[in-house]
Amino acid sequence: MNSDTQHADSSAAISDTPSLADLHAVLTGPGAPFEMEIAVIRGVPTRVWKNAPGTLNEIFQASLIFDDRDFLVFEAERATYALSSTLGS
Fold first, then answer.
1. pLDDT for residue 88
2. What gap in Å lies between CA 85 and CA 79, rounded to an integer?
3. Radius of gyration (Cα) for the chain, nearest Å?
4. What are the domain boundaries of the chain?
5. What contacts 58, CB < 8 A, 6 or more positions away?
6. Do the Cβ atoms of 36 and 48 come closer than 8 Å?
7. CA distance 8 to 50
8. φ, ψ of residue 7 in degrees (nearest 5)
């Protein structure tokens, strides 16, 4: 393979790569996991995630799928997600 062929191959790979704008559209468009919508917050139209958890408690509840994984680490001490859920009870 000569250098012209290698350059053409790498150019093709780059041109097949989606742009940041394309990826953003895929992830935040209608029906996507990070779909965006406009919500009025304190009288100001604001772009927000449509499917975002409504409360901090919902975030903690969703994190329980990680049960035995480390949640906090300080030096040699570790707290799991399961332990963190009992601390707030």
1. 58
2. 10
3. 22
4. 1-51, 53-89
5. none
6. yes
7. 42
8. -65, -45
d(CA 27, CA 12): 24
| Pairwise CA distance, residues 36 & 30, whole Å | 8
CB 72 within 8 A of CB 78: yes
What local confidence, expressed as pLDDT, does residue 81 receive? Answer: 83
Residue found by looking up tokens 């859920």 in the block: 85
Provide the CB-side half-sphere exposure for 5 (13 A, CA). 2
Q: What pLDDT is attached to residue 36?
A: 95
Cβ neighbours for 3, distance < 8 A, ≥ 6 positions apart: none
Per-residue pLDDT of the chain (89 residues; tens, 9 = 90+): 565 555 555 565 667 899 999 999 999 999 998 999 999 999 999 999 999 998 988 888 888 888 889 988 999 999 888 876 666 55
